[in-house]
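Morning run. Coffee first, then this:
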Amino acid sequence: MSTGTRPALTRFVRFAPRVGVAAVAAVALAACGGGNDKAGSSAPAEAAGKSGAFPVTVQHKYGSTTIESEPKRIVTLGLSDQDAVLALGIKPVGSVDWFKEKPYGKWPWTKDKWGSDTPDIVGERDEYNMEKIAALKPDLVIAQYSGMKKEQYDTLSKFTKVVAQPKDLPDYGASWQVMTRQIGTSLGKKAQAEKLITGIDADFEKVRDAHPEFATKTLAVADSFEAGKYSAFTKTDPKSIFFSELGFKLKPEIDKLAKPGWNAAELSAEKLNVLDVDRLVWVTSSTDANDRIKAEPLYKNLKVSKDKRDLFVPYQGPDIGAAFSFNTVLSIPYAIDEIVPLLTAVK
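And here it is:
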């Protein structure tokens, strides 16, 4: 992962920073109505999972891990790893907190999956509480959308199986397809994972077929957390990938302006002209931020602003921005349902 990526650029951006954030005291959360005895139980596994999917060997950044039998107690350490695990019918017993917000039950695309069960919190971002993880006695630790270091992998491997982030990709560089396949293989649910991927691909295809005009338009995703400072997301960022899969064209100039390894180009007000595209999506966390952006004189001069072809999407409430920032097999259908009507309303 790039060490240069800043928190201001990456609130629930799936290229999350590792910037020496002090790990908060993780509070073990007791599950409602049965605790973690329920968390970790799986829905009926596909036939292969019961009759010979195991052992499986999964390649990853730090080598390979062989899983001899179906894991029951899973701990996830990536930003959005829990989504694919939930989609495959298993509730993780442990998870990490990324932005001091509950990583479970909060998002509309996961509430039904978690039900009354909640995972224990075993760290913040890439700072893991090894004692808490060990106390959960996991069969498997998964860290796909993460920046897990070799020493962390080695420590965890002393007491459990670990599938680290995919090899041949940068940290926080796994697409939703790669994550789903890695997790599906690890859980002995390859066929189920492929079915999920096929379903999401079909969802994107339906949108492209219904809106061929998207393919003729350039689109950029941006945010601003400070006055006078803006960021535009590159083609490697999950938000940009989401809109690309809807059919839009991205703007190569943004990638050229980004520092090597970064998922966003930092822009001053004087550089806002790079955002003069056919559709501009601002993902913001407050109406104050929206008003501040709209009030910037150099922004008001852009044609995309004058023609009202810009779209201000909340990060949460409703959780549209969070959904395409996560960009997982669970969040994508929700994101599509919410964002497409907004995009088509812009003339």
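The chain has 14 helices and 13 strands. Good start to the day.
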